[in-house]
Give the backbone structure.
Amino acid sequence: MSISRLTRTVALLDGLGTVGALVMAFAAPCCLPLFAMIAGAVGITALGLNEKFVLFALQAFAVIAIIGLAFAASRLRQFGPLILGALAAFVLFFSFQGRFSALLVYLGLGGLCVASVWNYLLSRKRRSDGAGVILQSVITCPNCGQHAEETMPTNACLFFYECSRCGATLKPKTGDCCVFCSYGSVPCPPVQTGAGCCA
């Protein structure tokens, strides 16, 4: 799996975990009366899922959301959403494993939602600012091992690169968008910001 595809997948984890946790909460109307009304109107209760499975899946989705928030925190260097998400997950786990309280479940799910939206807004702001993008990358020729430091363009991908030592023309590997993602020490700016391939 290429770096750009992995980055895009990891960027979706917090949202996927949060949405999954909410769907599971709606599917457990016996424990959460506020959600029971909404789930009944939408028809989620017709799924007939086992209550134990639903509550276990809700906690698993909360863990997935935290993993996504942790990856985003390491990439964006913004730890607020991760801290809020971790507190929300702790509240959820305490409610399910310690002493059940529907209010705590509502607070935990609300906290996960706020953390995911906050994280989305931060990543969107970073993409528009271009903050933290590294423009210098060292391309290593796979044929002769030549290292050359190059400045990456911010408005286009580099599809071909000619090695100054052996004259080989480098092309992106399958799944990568440019020669920097394939042979560079740093991926291209769009991949760094989580925007994905610029091709």
